[in-house]
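Hello,

Our lab assistant flagged a job as stuck in the queue for most of the afternoon. It eventually completed. Since we weren't sure the result was trustworthy after the delay, we are filing this so someone can double-check. Below is the sequence as submitted and the structure that was eventually returned. Let us know if re-running is recommended.
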Amino acid sequence: MSTERRVHLSRSARPAYDALEAFSQTVGTIAADAGIDARLRELVLIHASQLNGCAYCVRVHVDRAVAAGLTADDIAQLATWRESGIFTARERAALELAECYVFIHEEGVPDEVYDRVGGILSEKEYVAVSWLLISINAFNRLTIAGKYPVPPRSGEKTDGGAGSGTA
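-- returned structure --
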């Protein structure tokens, strides 16, 4: 089945999508009430979406991150967060937890990660970040399965994937 002919799940079963959207709103409220600010929320959602390979959700959350004040450097450093010195202990804990939720089928949340993250995040923060990750993983699966398009923005040029030839 081609991308153009794929069933659009969010349109084809609108009540299920609306429930997922309502769930996401509830999770956002839980996160805000737990003190998860927009910066931390968007870092975690972008990183999970990157790891899942969801270009659509990466774009959505990069746009939200920029609107929340994150810089291009903040976003670019996500790929190397362990080596980067720009993230706080809370952000690093949340990013590590994000990796566990994306790859939950491998080890779940290992005890050492649970203990390390739990030593940095409060229980309310841990719960909130966990629910954010459960929510974004659901959205990632929806958009990946549906092959939601991520075309160039107007005015952007593409070279069809060829490199510039410079290092």
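-- support follow-up --
The delay was a queue issue, not a problem with the job. The result is valid. Confidence is low (pLDDT under 50) at residues 163-167. The two ends are 38 Å apart (CA to CA).
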